Model the fold of this input.
Amino acid sequence: MTEEVEKGPQTDASDLRRQGREAVEGPQATREAVRDVVMRALSNRSLEEGQVRDVVRSVLEGAAEAVPGDGAESVEALRQTVDGIDDALERAAMATKLAIEEARSQAAAFSEQDLRRAVDDLATLDRLYFEALASVVKSGTKVSARIIGDLAEHLRRTGTRTGAAVREALAALERPNAPHVPPRPGDLAHTARAGAATIAAIGSGILAGLADALGPRHDKDRTEPPEEDA
Done:
């Protein structure tokens, strides 16, 4: 990754755990708060496997630490947490797809190896999500481990938004002569700032545009019913 990529300051693991706790304990709806934390953290990194894994695991660990006990409120808080992470990774998959399409349109600047690595990183997103869940099951408290384990098992049966987005993106990228779909104008500004950076860095820039478009919504009450899955 080149040094010219314009990024905000990266938050370390302890900061991300703190933000995960605050997302559960704060006034904003937990699902939205967790989604925003993960998206903004990923937008300050390149969307590579190791970076994504670290962010998701740290935020999930912090959220698990905030769970008060073994009750319905705890189950709901962690359910909204895993849904919020799923929402963020779904958008990361979309951003990575756009970055790959943008890189393909600038073939002189990116090698086939660059493109293959980006596609591989995209393909791992759903697996990384389940790995993070499994990691917290092993390291969390007895209560949080049980709840997250149950939620992970449910997601394996029903599938995740991230997995659906990854499959859709990979299918679109594999279609022969697939038309190039440029990012939105706001996203192009982030891409231009990335310059000759890696495709993963371009993806994080596009994700930053998506995060900015969401904007903070602190007026949401945390007891509001979560968003319905599409």
Remarks:
- Residues 13-214 form one domain.
- Residues 72-105 form the longest helix (34 residues).
- DSSP finds ten helices and no strands in the chain.
- The radius of gyration is 17 Å.
